Amino acid sequence: DAKTTQPPSMDCAEGRAANLPCNHSTISGNEYVYWYRQIHSQGPQYIIHGLKNNETNEMASLIITEDRKSSTLILPHATLRDTAVYYCIVRVGHNFGNEKLTFGTGTRLTIIP
Amino acid sequence: GAVVSQHPSWVICKSGTSVKIECRSLDFQATTMFWYRQFPKQSLMLMATSNEGSKATYEQGVEKDKFLINHASLTLSTLTVTSAHPEDSSFYICSANPPNWGLLRNSPLHFGNGTRLTVT
Lengths: 113, 120
Fold this sequence. Notes:
heterodimer, A: 4-stranded antiparallel β-sheet, B: 4-stranded antiparallel β-sheet
């Protein structure tokens, strides 16, 4: 199962773009990259996911390198409410109906006023 | 979008008592639910996979007799912490799969808002 590596913490000024990197060098061809975030004392919130193309939704953009060994989550205009722990996850498991997500340590993003 | 509800959001109990936590999928049927535990400043750790109509699958090191899981319907899974001790104090989080989640590899998993258990 592919593992992910993220920096433990990052700061970003309010209003600027927050770029959160993730390495997943052992990802296999049919595994997706998912991003979740967890605001203090809440359950994880789904942000975005992708396979190999760049993706954008109302929350964020996901840039995946051509070799798929790393990706970057971009929050285009960070606000104080974006302060959270961000998890980059590669979907694990091989049995339909029994697939699960394994969380790493994530990146603690702090938005600075 | 898909919603997963947990109840209660927090609970305080005395050592030696049992506590039940509910996880419901509100707008979809969930054949599989997952239970996680999170200690302060740590990541989520998977405890068990709850399968509707069959026994739960526990991760290594998780005591199945202490953490009883029941998934009796397609919208409800319960986790009962039996004979709770202060070291069981933690943040418990559930997540749920729609039935076709395994087939649609690009579907996200949905999480509840967690239950904070404090054992005194």
